[in-house]
Amino acid sequence: MEMNFVQRQTQGLAMTAKMQASLKILQMSQLDLTAHLAEQALENPCLDIRMPEVAPPLPTGARGTPNPDFDPVAALAEAKPSLYEHVGRQIARAFTHPVTQRVAMAFAEALEPTGWLGAPVDQIARIAGVPRPVAEGILARLQDFEPAGLFARNLSECLRLQAADKGLLTWELSVILDNLALLAEGRIDELAQMCDGTPDDVRAALATIRGLDPKPGMAFSAPDMPVLPPDLHLTRGADGWQVELNRSVLPGLRVTDGPDSAGDAAARAWLSAARSRARWLVRAVERRQATLLLTAGFLVRHQAAFLDAGPEALRPLSTEEAAAELGIHPSTVSRAVAHRTIETPRGTLPLRAFFSRAFTPGSGADGPSQDALIALVARIVAAEEPTRPLSDADIVRRAQAEGAKLARRTVAKYRDMLGIPSSYDRKRKAPEPA
User: Which family does it belong to (predicted)?
Assistant: First the structure.
């Protein structure tokens, strides 16, 4: 066998350590970045950091010498998850579409530590940009989460959800839960008459109620309900929408000379390298902020109609299309928008909400987006007469009258995504006319 050696010259991009570190900084959330910079400032005497108004806990090293008896594995085993984390994991499993996930997360953000909703459904629907019936459908799915009683709007609903979950919800108990004020006042005889029972029946129901948990959210670790400030602010100016960074969450960085080396050559060399690292870190953070602002500005310009008119005006846009317009790599766009939020007149939205797939693949920005058509189906259903709900075929005809071509199976799929029952179930649940 004959062996030959051949030389070839090729071109490629080598990912240096600094490039990898720069990409890591780009992908960090504001709080992760602040914690990272605080840790770097502990190690580098030439880097001075001014903590933002909303600052994360400093790294462990900034708090002094750790306790040698501390067992981190045991601490993890004993620590309870926060209510927000618990609910967030269930939302990720139960809702796979970005629209329904966004609405579900709006409900999660309104949760109080007790597990009850702290805002009315109408308000949450406005924040999420969906009609009330859609929000109510998603709330019904959220109220199936574990433990039972989460997402209740009041004490009566919280106890009702738990009783139903345990198979204890009888008609008599339902009547008593609807009249908890009478129970609190001790008007047992009056309640007995209302539920066609005896005072002993009411007392037995009271024993059942006492076995329920009026505050199911308190079983979780209380504090860490992250109400994080947005990364960006959006305002309307004379020249249209204006995007700016939220300076209150940005750490201030400054490169200093460091301590006096007192003529020590080795110390001067070490400080020179430390200043070089500090300058690079400052430039990396500046590039991160510039990339974030550039990307957000493009998204706002591209989806200005969405900000003005709502989800039905959302245009198709992919990360690849955004990257081509901005002249950067698609992975850079993905890193720039990951875990980023922007405060808008429509509430605080994730930057991911500005992306949407085209309804017809390959149609680009000329065709409608999936999210826009989902919002259209939600609006059509919200406007129907409750006693005469629209069938999927009716929804198709109304959508076509507005210029949207949908198949009936597509309407059914979008209904499922939005948690909207079939026309038969909607009619069965509709209130009877007076």
Answer: Belongs to the sigma-54 factor family.
